[in-house]
Amino acid sequence: MSAPVKLFSKCAKLNYRHCSLRHHAQRLPFSRSFCTRHQTTATMSTAANPQLLTQQVAAMNADPLFTPHAVCRTVENDPNKHTENHLGLFFTVAEEDMKKLFGFGGLEKHLRTQMATFTESCIMVRPPALEVINYLRKADYEKPAIRYVLYGRKGVGRTVSLAHILYWCSLQGWLLLHVPDPTKFTVKIEEMQPSIFKPGQVDLPLTAAEWLKRFRTQNALFLEENEFTASRKYVWSKRESSESGSPIISIIDYGINRVKYAADCVNVVIREVKLQSQNFSKPVIVVVDGGNQFFCETTIKREDKTLLPPDDVSLVHNLKKLFHSDWVRNRCCHR
What we know:
This protein is of the alpha/beta class. The chain has helices spanning 21-25, 44-48, 50-62, 95-102, 109-118, 127-138, 158-171, 183-186, 205-218, 220-225, 248-257, 262-276, 314-319, and strands spanning 5-7, 90-93, 121-124, 147-149, 175-179, 193-194, 202-203, 234-235, 241-242, 284-288, 330-334.
């Protein structure tokens, strides 16, 4: 029996639907007098009533949580300390953490452009992210995985909420399995070749090598601190193989350097993670930004002009195994 799926209320609530710095900047007040704790308003009632306006300003200044610019950002940049008091506020992510987590994708282009323009990286604290993080703190990791689904209309902040969750898991030292753009496996195809080990399937070598680079970069510290080795021998060709007990990082490097075998190295990494997750010092988090894409038709055509099913793409076939409930000490979060 598959594990239950938790559904969350939509991100598109009144005060949290603006997910970009540019949009939020348009909501800044005409003057500080119109600032409230979590939203900015400029109503006719306060403008026409100076006494009411004075009372609002006094109440705002008396708030011990108020700091300059508290209307749009918080000085608490540790996601482990975020509470409901920080909802709707931006926090700053260190540049080195941004490069480690999202250097190979994971944030939309317009958001990356805004971060480059403002020369800082900020994420808004949203209710779904706090809710998932709270569940992750209290979860029993000896039981099969629970999948958390963030849903809502386009532009409400699902991708940024996933980034918030991924950042929290990274600070906790978890093993990250991040798939930021599954459309690269089914629609935005860069290069493909027939699978070497499974006739009828198609490999995406460049996309697989990019995933391996992301995995290696995001989990560099985890791979150093944990003894993560191959459980059996893997033969790549007549002359090349990885012996049992070889460090997984050597298999990752092999797939990056020998792109022809990158897709098969991804399969090995996923297989070994599932087999050894119960022995890891920290849990595993699977974050997929667009999991439905694994079940949509591809744009890859066979020789007879018919479209290739998604399960015949080796990367899709292997990554979908992460959604199964046949392993422990993990959680899956996607939209």
